[in-house]
Every structure is written in structure tokens, then in C-alpha cells.
Request: fold
Amino acid sequence: MNINTELYKTFYSVANYKSISKAAKAMFVSQPAVTKAIQKLENQTNCTLFIRNSKGVSLTFEGQLLFASVQKAFVHLQNAERTIENLANNEIGCIKIGVSNTLCKYYFLPHLEKFHKTYPHISIQIVNVPSPTTLALIGKGDIDFGIVSFGEHSSRFNYIRLMNIHDVFVSSKEVKSTTLPIEKLRDYPVMMLEKGNQTRILVDKFLSNHGVVIEPEIEIGSMDFLIEFAKIGIGVACVIKEFVEQELCKGELFQLPLSAAPPPREMGLVTNRKIALSHAAKNFVDMLLT
Reply:
């Protein structure tokens, strides 16, 4: 049986109002149109659904059975409509975002705070993983979007550049020389991120291209510790310049004036090209880009 859902809608309204005329008024249609719809539904179900009386109509036994199911269906639809409306108004929703610890602390946190204050009812899940893992999660659709520390121009993803970042070497002591030959890095106790980290891979490649091989005194997975170690004078740390601007301005850290510097690289926002963003996720992306 393939019955037009509009007939069920008319049936549901008449059953609620217990009156064809009141249902017609509520639905902004004519009374004959409602009567015709009920007759058509009764013909298609081969059941009498209403008993007509002087006060209006009442449900037959068959009508009561049908109404019980139709009522549940319309309650589910009404709940779904309210849910969609709440999503559209950013009153509910969930966003999953992939970002590394470093990018989360030094770039993402202020944006997260702003979004949460604007949309306090949106649930936000942060997945703290390296940029390559973030891309893998986006590819599988496990997260809505990610912020990565290198340009990703694959056909699988939408990529939006957020800013340029620069890898630099810093220490707690200022180097008086205006230019320091890059080979002189070997004379310092150098501290770098662990091997396998995307930043470490790019910096090692840059140094190798200049004939410099560094065996770091300290290798660690957190740029936070590299910064703190450099501030207390343990050695020269390879960090992202944009994330130590305050320390450089205060004179807590000094950038080594190397004769060659790693090229700037992009930090960007990545989404899955084949998966549309939810309303909440789109609003977060829009906020990041403004």
C-alpha cells in the first residue's frame, strides 16, 4: 500500500481536532478538500476511520489503531524538525577537530575560546594528533576538519591557507654577529623535536641541503619544552618563530642570525572534499577565516 503522506497529515489533523471544519481551518484548506482526503484514505485502507456526529467526528476502532501509529510518526517528525532548527540556530551540535598540541596551544586556543563564548551549546571534540594523522582522520571522515602545519593540496582535500610560519633557532643569549654561518650550528647544543615529526623532517631536509648534519643534544615531542629549555639556557632550540614572538620581544629568547633560513611554510585548514561540513563546523571555519 503506497499512500500519500499528505493524506496521513490530514487524517492526523482531523483526529486531533475531532472536527473536519476545524482541521480545514488549521491547515488553510477548504472543508471539502479535507473531506475528500479522508474519503480517499478510507478507500485506500478499505476501512472506515471516522464516525460523523453532530459535534464533529470520532475515531472508529480501526481509526484509533491507525492514529496510534501516525501520531508516533508525526511526533518523531516534529522532534526532528526541532532538532534541525536547533542545529541551524547553533543551539546544539558537535564538531570534531584534529590539531597537533603545538598548533592547538599557540594558534587554535584563542579561536576555540571565541567560538565557545559565541556558541556555548555546541560540543567540541579536539583530537590532538600530528598533522599527517589529522589528514588520515579527515580522509576517513572521522573528524570534520583539521589544522595542519604544511600545505596540503591533494585532490582529496579542500585546503585553505591560514598563515605562514617560520622555523628558527633561538637561545637565551644574543649572538653579537650580524650573520652566523649555518655551519656554526654544529658548535651549539641543539634541541629539536623528535624524528618523525613533520617540522623535524622539514628542518632536517633543509640542513642537509646545506651540507649540515645535526645530532641534537635533546630530542623531545613537545615544542613547549623546547621553548622552556631554551629560556633557561640549556641550548639552542628549533621552534616556530610566530609562536615565540612574546619571548623574542621581551628579550627572553634571541633568534640566531643564520646565513640561511628554512623557507616559510604554510599552516592551513583542511576538510574532506567529498563530505559537506555540518552547520556548526561551517560556522567554526567561517570564524577562523574572519
